[in-house]
Design a protein that fits this description.
- It contains eleven helices and twelve strands.
- By secondary structure, it is α/β, with parallel strands linked by helices.
- The protein has two domains: about 5-135 and about 275-355, 3-Layer(aba) Sandwich (D-Maltodextrin-Binding Protein, domain 2), CATH 3.40.190.10; about 135-275, D-Maltodextrin-Binding Protein, domain 2.
Length: about 350
């Protein structure tokens, strides 16, 4: 049987006091001897946890480093280390193997894993739980302006990277284009490799989650320094066809003028959407999840230090309200510790977000 992966040649060691992101070995992670077992610290000793994030080239990465800092600065019972990964799908798979305590997840991939759909059909991840909703965003299908690709159908037969290897973006873009019968030549790569391949004209473009619906991702900005780009939109009919095949994929519009001076963005661009946040499993103790969510939520409040908002501006101003009452999250449900904090805030928790381990 395949052995579980680990972030680097040796186990990641937490930094003190701020998290030093632990990077995996170049390319695919190597097998670990065994999954990380939940630590049981002695009295007064902080529990070491690993946080699965994304690639360092992503606009998401600084945010997750900030998450680690907030936890380490405000939760004395926890010592967090942020691990660079291939993002959502890899995080969920490694979380299921017990390697991550907290992880970046997206609404679509989390729902599929929890319900045992698609790649998780043989092994549903019923222990997966939401902690907080970080933000809602758009997925941009970016191509070189000089590639001749003007609409999605033009991607047929072209070399194209659907997203960071192992990410929810990669899966969502592939699923959407396949539902429309569009068949590019898939170029599988990590973020930096894909960006360089676009610059070198080896591929026509890639799929990339934006920093927000109206905020451009750092890697897209990097390409734009030397290369004019275009973001391809879906028609309404194409959006309906994708959702018939994959009802868990939302659609959003990138507002007009986000890409300044771009003729193609004088009108909104209708495209795939994502909601991103923090997840955990039922293995994370309730008191620990409570303390983590409380610290992160309070950091965003008017009296908070805004460590997360400084790292990434395009995040929810009120995590708790967006998570508990925003109507964005459906399944999996919230972690018991998160529910405890949100209830303390006086927020109403929908029945669908209450897990079986919590008394209603």
């Amino acid at each position: 049987a395949a052995q579980p992966a680990k972030p680097a040649a040796e186990p990641a060691k937490p930094a003190a006091p701020a998290p030093q992101p632990a990077k995996p070995a170049a390319q695919a992670p190597k097998p670990a001897a065994q999954p990380a077992a939940p630590a049981k610290p002695a009295s007064g000793e902080a529990k070491r946890i690993l946080i699965g994030s994304t690639q360092s080239s992503s606009s998401q990465y600084p945010y997750w480093v900030a998450v680690g800092k907030v936890i380490n600065d405000n939760v004395p019972t926890v010592q967090a280390t942020v691990v660079e990964t291939g993002a959502t799908v890899e995080n969920i798979n490694r979380g299921q193997r017990g390697e991550f305590d907290v992880m970046l997840i997206t609404t679509d991939a989390a729902l599929q894993a929890y319900k045992g759909l698609d790649r998780w059909k043989d092994k549903p991840f019923t222990e997966l739980r939401w902690l907080w909703l970080q933000r809602r965003t758009a997925v941009a299908i970016v191509v070189r302006e000089d590639s001749g690709v003007k609409k999605l159908e033009d991607l047929n037969g072209k070399d194209f990277n659907p997203g960071i290897r192992g990410s929810a973006t990669e899966k969502e873009v592939k699923d959407a284009l396949e539902a429309l019968g569009i068949k590019p030549k898939w170029y599988t790569a990590g973020g930096p490799d894909a960006v360089q391949a676009i610059k070198d004209k080896r591929i026509v473009g890639y799929g990339k989650t934006m920093a927000g619906v109206d905020a451009i991702d750092a890697s897209i900005l990097e390409i734009m320094v030397t290369t004019p780009i275009r973001v391809l939109g879906f028609t309404e009919d194409q959006g309906k066809k994708v959702q018939q095949a994959h009802p868990y994929y939302p659609f959003v519009s990138i507002p007009a003028g986000v890409f300044k001076d771009a003729e193609w963005n004088k009108q909104p661009v209708f495209t795939l959407g994502l909601a991103i946040g923090g997840g955990a499993t039922t293995r994370l103790p309730e008191d620990m999840a409570y303390a983590i969510v409380k610290a992160l939520d309070q950091d965003q409040m008017p009296s908070g230090k805004k460590v997360q908002a400084t790292a990434q501006k395009a995040i929810e101003a009120d995590f708790g309200k967006a998570t508990a009452e925003g109507g964005v999250i459906s399944e999996p449900p919230l972690h018991a510790g998160a529910i405890k904090w949100y209830k303390e805030r006086g927020l109403k928790i929908p029945d669908a977000l209450v897990p079986p381990e919590v008394k209603r």
